[in-house]
Specification:
The complex is a heterodimer of chains A (423) and B (70). Chain A is α+β, with helices and mostly antiparallel strands and 423 residues long. Chain A has 16 helices and 16 strands. The chains are: A alpha+beta (423), B alpha+beta (70).
Chain lengths: 423, 70
């Protein structure tokens, strides 16, 4: 057994302790007015956030809510970009808008560096990870990803209805990130639980939320111990051994980054694959065109990423200020909706339409500025391979029952049930 | 016609080297680089312009040179 004092084996029962920070009242239920009471966790938002955002952009471009202890929702591209670039006035110390705000002194590191980090620490924590996520580095995962996509379709057998989200899309990023982190491939169902708890469990009672999040970190600690005993060529061993400023990373940094890679590596790409297939299932013209001309896929994919951008981030306002016509207070949330930015008619022609050969497409699906999605090259590889293999193997498909399609709630949006008729 | 990437703005989205791998490459951290001295070969002007137009960070500049400058 390899001993590393950062990761004690018989840790005292500290994991369920209430974290230091501030909690706000949990407010749920139907939204009375989207301009003053928005919530990204209500069914109306999950079903169709775009019509809400389009309406807000016209009449109240920076909407407000008293839920989650107070927050703002900008819907214009220009405003979303301004906040993404302004790390002086908007902190990333929490990037999931909910009823818990971590203490201010958690900045600039945050709970899951580098996504939760502010400058200057952010740059150094991110730099450690960048080489593992370049386009050429992730291309090494492509042959295995392609083979895995084929195996998922092989497993459909003779079924004429499959669930494209549950039986296909979700498994692809789970397998890829499990391999990169060196986690057991069969732990997929646990990953799904961790993802849902982290991103959709926002309005649970604190005790329940803490208990569920503790399960994630207990799992990660077990993986760290396994890697201490059996070091291997993967991201977990890399993080255990990585150094910053001449010292090994703090235990919380190692586990927090692992949590980030696991959670952000899965639900986002799962959502992008599912949303793209959902679009193609009900748009025969686009589906037939892509089947006939697979060379169009890279362009079409960017359009799916624009129109169905899965990821919304959050920021915390650092100090009271007047900003673009509204009075923000310190510790107000910003729900930083890249999906809303991507449908702003001031930035895109035919913003509300999916134009699969759109040649000029300066979308912000992977964010803007210093927090550009670290895994964007990995996500693009997975999305391209997943769609390529599906279209090759299943050129004809349609929604089996559009009323049975369900979408995730919260900041990551994608289909979670997607019954598809093949042929 | 010559391409230049402002390394202060580039965040490594890779839209340029995805689209035109003969004009752009990436460094070991994924940030974009122009290949060679950035001169756009004849017939590649359209992809060069599209790389500029698709960069999410507005990090690519294209200096239009007239033929007598070259």
């Amino acid at each position: 057994m390899t001993v590393d004092e950062r990761f004690p084996r018989n840790a005292p029962e500290t994991v369920d302790e209430e974290p230091i920070g501030t909690r706000s009242e949990i407010i749920t239920g139907p939204v009375s007015d989207w301009t003053t009471d928005f919530s990204h966790l209500e069914p109306q938002w999950s079903a169709d956030p775009y019509s809400i955002q389009d309406d807000l952009r016209k009449r109240c471009p920076v909407a407000h809510t008293e839920r989650f202890g107070g927050g703002w929702l900008p819907t214009r591209y220009e405003d979303v970009a301004a906040i993404a670039y302004d790390t002086e006035r908007f902190s990333s110390r929490s990037i999931i808008m909910g009823n818990f705000r971590p203490p201010r002194d958690l900045a600039p590191i945050g709970g899951s560096p580098p996504i939760s980090s502010d400058p200057p620490f952010h740059h150094d924590a991110r730099k450690l990870l960048l080489p593992a996520f370049t386009k050429s580095a992730v291309s090494r995962q492509e042959p295995a990803t392609r083979a895995f996509c084929h195996s998922l379709i092989d497993a459909f057998g003779n079924r004429d209805v499959v669930d494209a989200a549950a039986d296909y899309a979700q498994h692809i990023p789970m397998r890829v990130i499990a391999d990169m982190l060196g986690f057991p491939q069969e732990d997929g169902p646990r990953f799904r639980e961790f993802v849902e708890n982290t991103l959709e469990g926002i309005n649970l009672e604190p005790d329940e939320r803490i208990a569920r999040m503790s399960k994630l970190f207990e799992y990660l600690l077990a993986q760290i111990h396994d890697h201490l005993d059996n070091p291997r060529d993967d991201l977990t061993t890399f993080l255990i051994n990585a150094e910053l400023y001449g010292r090994k990373l703090e235990a919380d940094h190692v586990a927090g980054t692992m949590a980030l890679l696991l959670i952000a590596g899965i639900d986002t790409t799962w959502s992008a694959i599912g949303a793209s297939l959902w679009h193609l299932a009900q748009t025969p013209r686009d589906r037939e065109r892509l089947v006939a001309d697979p060379g169009l896929l890279p362009t079409a994919m960017e359009e799916f990423l624009r129109a169905y951008a899965p990821v919304t981030m959050a920021r915390l306002v650092k100090q009271d200020m007047r900003w673009h016509g509204v009075d923000m207070r310190a510790d107000d949330w910003i729900l930083l909706s890249f999906p809303a930015a991507n449908r702003d008619p001031a930035q895109f022609d035919r913003a509300g339409e999916v134009v699969i050969d759109r040649e000029v497409n300066r979308h912000a699906a992977f964010g803007l500025g210093i927090h550009r999605c670290l895994g964007s090259h990995l996500a693009r590889m997975e999305l391209r391979v997943a769609l390529d293999v599906w279209l090759e193997r299943i050129p004809v498909f349609s929604l089996n029952d559009s009323s049975a399609v369900t979408w995730s709630a919260g900041q990551i949006r994608g289909p979670r049930a997607l019954p598809m008729r093949i042929g | 016609m010559k391409l230049h990437i402002d390394s202060g703005r580039c965040q490594g989205h890779g839209r340029c080297y995805d689209r035109a791998p003969d004009l752009f490459g990436d460094d070991e951290e994924g940030y974009g680089m122009v290949l060679g001295d950035g001169t756009v070969p004849p017939g590649r002007e359209h992809d060069a312009r599209m790389a500029v137009a698709n960069c999410p960070e507005h990090a690519i500049e294209l200096a239009e040179e007239t033929s007598h400058d070259r």
